[in-house]
Amino acid sequence: MRVQFYILSFFLVFVLFTAMPPTPALHEDGYHRCVEGCGSQHESQKGLLIHQKTCKIANQSDSQLVDLQKRIQENRAQKKLKKRKRLENDVGPVAHPGGHDGNAAPVSLALDDFETDMQVDEPFISPEEPPPEPEPEQLGRGRRKKRGTWKVIQNLPQPTPPVSDEPVSIPTPSSPTPDPALQDDPEDSVVWKIFRSAANIFGIYREYHSPEMPTHHPDDHLTLHDLTLDPDPLITPPTSSPFALASLRDTDDAANSEDTSNATSHLASAHDDRGTSTSTVFESGAPTTTPMVSEPPPPSTPAPFANWSVYWLMKWMWSGSDKKSLAECNALVSEVIQKEGFDPSHFANFDAGRETAKLDAFLNTNAKDGWKTSDVTIEVPDGKRHQSPSDPPVPTFSVPGLHHRSIVEIIKTAWTDASADKFHFLPFKQYWRRSADKVERIHDEIYSSDAFIRAHEDLQHSKPEEGCTLERVVCALMFWSDSTHLASFGDASLWPLYMFFGNQSKYVRGRPNSGACHHVAYIPKLPDKIRDFFSALTGKSLSDDAQTLCRRDLMHSVWRLLLDADFRHAYVHGIIIKCTDGITRRVYPRLFTYSADYPEKVLLATIRSMGDCLCPRCKILKPLVPELGMIRDFKRRLTAARVDNNIFRSVVTTARNAIYKAGAAIKARVVGEILDPQSLIPVKNAFSEFAEAVSEGVAPHAWNFFTMFVPDLMHEFELGEFKRFFTYLIRLLEAIGAGAVQEMNRRYRLMPTFGRFTIRKKSVDTSALKKLAAHDYEDYVRTAMPVFEKLFPNPLHDKLVQDMLFTLADWHALAKLRMHTDSSLALLRATTASLGKQYRFFVKNVCGFYDTKELAREEAARNRRRAAAIKAGKPTPPATAGKLKKTLNVFTYKHHALGDYPDTIVMFGTTDSYSTQQGELEHRRVKRFYARTNKNNAVKQITNLHRREEAMRSRKERIYKTLKKKRQSAAAVLEMQSEPLSYTPPEYHHEISRSQNFPSTLPRWANLNRVDPAMKDFYRKLQDHLYSRLLNPGCADVEQTFTNAERQNFLLLGSRIYRHKVFRVNYTTYDVRRGQDSMNPSSHPDIMVPARDLDPDTGESPSGHPYAYARILGVFHAAVSHRVDGQLPTTRIVEFLLVRWFRLDTTWKGGFEARRLYRIEFLPESDPNAFGFLDPDDVIRGSHLIPAFAYGLQEDASLYYSDVYKYYYVNFFVDRDMYMRYRGLGVGHSFIRVPQDQSAVPPPCDDDDDDDIPDVVPDGADDDDDDEEEGGESGGDHERDEDEADPEVDPEDGEGDENAAASHGYAAH
Question: Which sequence ranges are marked TM in the entry (predicted)?
Answer without folding.
Answer: none
